[in-house]
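Each lists chain and fold; for instance:
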Amino acid sequence: MIELNGLTAVVTGGNGMGRSICRAYAAAGANVVIADIRSKSRSPIARELRNA
């Protein structure tokens, strides 16, 4: 797995594919910024990543 420690990933969309991408970047050590026009989509994944 590629290590992304200290890097920041900006992901557009916090639902479906975006959610999976957020998880993968976080697992690789990146800081993740989630941009989604629907706050209901980005809030659950943001909480999940903060708690992980």
